[in-house]
């Protein structure tokens, strides 16, 4: 019963991992047959070959038309997205073992927390489970919408999805169909890989936040005279599915007991693996994508297919950056709240020799800032989001001024 429950809770996560195995980001499952392994490796080689060809042909177009600012802006937005996605794929592949280990380090304590009998704990976990589903379907929907617009609109217009220069004449058949297939396949591969990577990355932030939130309540509920440790109960976990957790008030969400879970996992999360380079590329890529597509929206206001494509690109970059910064901001808030929770733990009511030193030492540790950083320079928080929007607008104004 427990194994089934865990698998059910990790259904979306396991689905994303399976996608990344077929995309070559993660190694294939050791339990699959040799024929299936060969099939997966063939798909991986073919997909990466198409992606590299796709990117190089767009770069070639930008180089040949380097004097045309309009074409540079159009190609630049595509190239920025291509580099960002492929960079993420390669970094994630090189750290695949650490990522899979981190998934277990973060999700195993959550599986334990779902067995708590504290209603507040169960509601918190249930809430974030709903948010997890929203993240998954929103990520898939955005990627699907962007892919559909790029591929379908170009098919209707009889053009390629993106400007590109191939070593053959794409205006005649069957070379047009070959070029169209390469761009369509590469676009689909990139978007599917990105959506799976984004979902897993965002869920790291969400479930780390949950652990910090419950750890914070543990500090406030650690006085044994007032609270009893929570005991595991599967019936309560199953029963909470009938609740509409989004409408439950804050009083019901309050955690009233000390909840047992592997606290040493928090240490692993804090000092372990991060996507510093990926996050840095994410911020830079989002800046270029937003400012370049903003420029294209103004420049191609009379070209409806181009306008729609630029709007979706701009919206995707905006939403992606907003999600990262919002979740990073929440993680930082919950981590900062640990210091206050330790002070409110009631240590003064149980004063004995040495406890003040223990509390002080623990508070010094939690006073150190814990946040997701991009390249060790920029913290993922709402201030960074606003800063990038301002920078994108400044570049946009510069481009419109130069072209005008």
What does this entry show, briefly?
The protein is an all-alpha fold. The protein contains 14 helices and two strands.
In N-to-C order, the SSE pattern is HHHHHHHHHHHHHEEH
Number of β-strand runs: 2
Q: Briefly note the structural class of the backbone.
A: mainly alpha
The DSSP helix count reads: 14
Poorly predicted segments:
1-6, 224-234, 239-243, 263-273
Major sheet, described briefly?
A: 2 strands, antiparallel
User: Which percent band covers the strand fraction?
Assistant: under 5%
Q: Rounded to an integer, what's the Rg over CA atoms?
A: 25 Å
The amount of helix comes to over 70%
Distance separating the two termini: 67 Å
Q: Based on CA inertia axes, which overall geometry fits?
A: globular
Q: Could you give the order of strands across the largest sheet?
A: 1-2
Overall mean confidence score, pLDDT: 76
Please characterize this protein's 3D structure:
The protein is an all-alpha fold and 404 residues long. 74% of the residues lie in helices and 1% in strands. The protein has 14 helices and 2 strands. It has a two-stranded antiparallel ribbon. Strand 1 and strand 2 (378-379) form a beta hairpin. Helix 3 (34-64) packs antiparallel against helix 4. The longest helix has 46 residues, at 175-220. The radius of gyration is 25 Å and the shape is globular. The N and C termini lie far apart (67 Å). 37% of the residues are buried. The model is unreliable at 1-6, 224-234, 239-243 and 263-273 (pLDDT under 50).
């Amino acid at each position: 019963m427990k194994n089934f429950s865990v698998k059910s809770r990790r259904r979306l996560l396991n689905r994303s991992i399976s996608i990344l195995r077929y995309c070559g980001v993660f190694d294939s499952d050791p339990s699959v047959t040799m024929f299936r392994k060969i099939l997966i490796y063939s798909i991986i080689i073919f997909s990466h070959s198409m992606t590299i060809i796709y990117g190089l042909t767009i770069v070639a177009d930008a180089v040949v038309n380097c004097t045309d600012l309009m074409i540079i802006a159009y190609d630049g937005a595509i190239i920025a997205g291509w580099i960002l996605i492929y960079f993420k794929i390669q970094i994630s592949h090189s750290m695949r073992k650490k990522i899979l280990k981190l998934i277990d380090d973060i999700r195993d304590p959550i599986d334990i927390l779902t067995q708590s009998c504290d209603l507040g704990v169960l509601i918190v976990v249930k809430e974030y489970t709903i948010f997890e589903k929203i993240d998954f379907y929103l990520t898939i929907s955005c990627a699907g919408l962007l892919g559909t617009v790029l591929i379908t609109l170009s098919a209707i217009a009889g053009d390629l999805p993106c400007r590109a220069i191939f070593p053959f004449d794409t205006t005649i058949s069957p070379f047009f169909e070959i070029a169209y297939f390469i761009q369509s396949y590469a676009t689909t591969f990139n978007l599917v890989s990105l959506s799976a990577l984004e979902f897993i990355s965002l869920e790291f932030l969400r479930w780390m936040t949950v652990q910090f939130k419950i750890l914070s309540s543990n500090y406030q509920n650690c006085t044994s005279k007032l609270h009893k440790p929570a005991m595991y109960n599967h019936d309560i976990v199953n029963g909470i599915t009938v609740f509409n957790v989004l409408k439950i008030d804050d009083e019901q969400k309050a955690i009233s007991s000390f909840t047992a879970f592997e606290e040493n996992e928090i240490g692993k999360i804090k000092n372990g693996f991060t996507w510093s380079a990926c996050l840095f590329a994410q911020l830079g890529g989002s800046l270029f994508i937003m400012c370049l597509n903003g420029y294209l929206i103004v420049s191609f206001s009379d070209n409806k297919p181009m306008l729609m494509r630029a709007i979706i690109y701009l919206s995707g970059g905006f939403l992606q950056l907003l999600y990262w910064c919002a979740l990073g901001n929440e993680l930082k808030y919950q981590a900062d709240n640990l210091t206050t929770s330790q002070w409110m733990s009631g240590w003064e009511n149980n004063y004995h020799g040495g406890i003040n030193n223990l509390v002080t030492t623990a508070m010094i540790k939690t006073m150190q800032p814990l946040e997701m950083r991009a390249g060790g320079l920029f913290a993922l928080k709402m201030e960074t989001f606003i800063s990038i929007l301002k920078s994108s607008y400044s570049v946009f104004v510069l481009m419109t001024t130069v072209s005008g």
